Amino acid sequence: MGLTVPAGVRDENYRQAITIVKTKTQWGLAIAGLIALFIAPLILDDYFNNFIALICINMIVVLGLNLLTGYCGQISLGQSAFVAVGAYSTGVLYAKYGVPFPLATFFAAMISAVFGIIVGLPSVRLKGFYLALSTVAFQFIVYWLLFKAEALTGGGYGLALPAVSFFGITFDTRLEVAYLSITSVVILAYFAKGIARTRAGRAFIAIRDNDLAAEVMGIALTRTKLIAFVISSIYAGFAGALYALLFRFLMPDLFTLGHSVWYLAMVIVGGMGSLLGSILGTVFIVCLQEITRVWFASLAAAFPTVLSVGMGTGISHASLGLALALFLIFEPRGLSHRWETIKSTYRLWPFSY
Amino acid sequence: MIEALLQAIVSGLLAGGIYGLVAMGIAIIYRSSGIFNFAHGAIILIGAYFFWTLISLAGLPLWACILITLLLSAAIGVALEYLALRPLLGQPILASIMMTLGLSMFFLGIYQVVWGHRGIVSFPNFMPMGHWIIGEITIGQANTWVLIAAIVLFVLFTIFFKFTSTGKQVQAICESHSIAQSVGIDVKRVLSLVWIIACMCAALTGVLVGASGSVGIYLNELVFMVIPVIILGGLESIGGALVAGFIVGLVEMISATFIDPIIGGGFRQVAPYLFLLIVLIVKPYGLFGWERIERI
After folding, report:
1. Contact B110 A310 (CB under 8 A)
2. A57: Cβ–Cβ under 8 A, 6 or more apart, which residues?
3. Which residues fall within 8 angstroms of residue A17, CB to CB, at 6 or more apart?
4. The pTM is what?
5. Number of CB atoms found within 10 A of residue A108's CB
6. pLDDT tens across B207-244, in order?
7. CA proximity to B161, closest of B174, B146, B147
8. CA pair distance A104, A91, nearest whole angstrom
9. Contact check, Cβ <8 Å, A317/B116
10. In Å, how far from its chain's centre is CA A4?
């Protein structure tokens, strides 16, 4: 791993080893990147700001899911159910009971966390594939409950929210939503990195690599697994609150098993156990989704007699499935590993090793 | 009341036949390679629509349609095993789960591009579609034929695995790939055979289920509906899949009859999943599954 930093940079103690930004160049890049990130929404139009907000929301879910699946090794195929819990809790509290939005978001994250504990409990007994199936069951039960609890959630008719405003800002244009999502994703990515590089994160990795060995080493297995579930469900719940704020209309069909599969696909395409990977993977998958959609829309406009709208979703599904399969075969360690390879090649050039 | 219960039991058993048929195809792959094939539903869907194209649009005779559909599904099976799953041998379990989920998306996409605009279709009648009425109880004839087909298929599988040389090789690789390899079994060849069998089973399921009702995208969802069945039966057991199919069918129909009126409908959709959670907590290896002991 000596090649991830330039030659001559040495870690002399543990504190230095876990620092995120190590050199002056990296500081410069980080600050420039943040400034660019916060100027971008002013230059871009509504379409791109909406797109940025969508990427950011997915990214928050994927960051949490990577902590659970990539670091702790617990497979969750029910992540979009947690997003649904967060989104609907915020929506119901804000639209029906008039709770201020920040408070509603906080409650939504807490409710998600409670669900995280409930879903995490079977992980005490179940492992790997069996645990994945219990999360599938959770996904279906939440989806059904959204339809059944019609008095609260509006059932299949959906739940509409008024434009959200708090701290004197009304979030009714794409610009404000984009700023809010970028700020949240930067803060939450920093938190996730903080969890991953300290005691909790190391415990997660130990459990992923061998849970029996981890328990022998004195890691409280049940508690740590539950912490992983709670953290990932808080991330998903928070993303759900932003989702409610962005779309202002919630429907059970926005939170299906298919969405859960895509969150996991983003983790895998980006690289398991790498937070940079979560960011890259989310951008990759969401862009692929959008590009196939836009490309097909223009194609369908050109040949209206041959092509129908359903084919567009079909092409989108097929290309995403193919991308996931190709990644699993040719780059199972994901985009972040590819990025590391590029970095070390750049540092070593023109010598091959 | 007693008629309602009897009707629920009969409908449950008939629904269980469909579940068992789907679950057997998945169990065959799981026991020999440890891969849960989430793409099974999409292959059922593709098989059913391909059959429909042959019989309704091309107008071929029934036997030719069935033969060509089975050949196509066998080709899909070989291709899947060789191109997609073989590179993943030895990778962690998440890789194979995501691979089959990705393949399922891929096939679903192909379905939407090729047949999506057709919507729900139905085959020309080649199975009796009437009902037998005994007292107050109605028995769908087509569903009964599906049930009989499931039982016949189970008997055929049992004969194949117990009494033929190739079947015994499949049994051997179920125990351990490396030991099977060391006694001279070509594990890769046997695995592709297993995928061929499972995919042909899927296409046949599509034809049968489609013939007993209609053909639509719901066929893809069958794979998620049978998850409770497979877990209850034990992931590795083919007979268990059939038995558990009946049990889950019964649970679903009885809860539809007796709990739906209390909470206002729709409970049958989640009853199998609630049942799944209970099974996972009480008896995670199912009724007939293999309880593997983990060594450090």
Report:
1. no
2. A181, A239, A242, A243, A246
3. A11
4. 0.88
5. 28
6. 888 887 778 888 888 888 888 888 888 877 888 888 88
7. B174
8. 8
9. no
10. 25
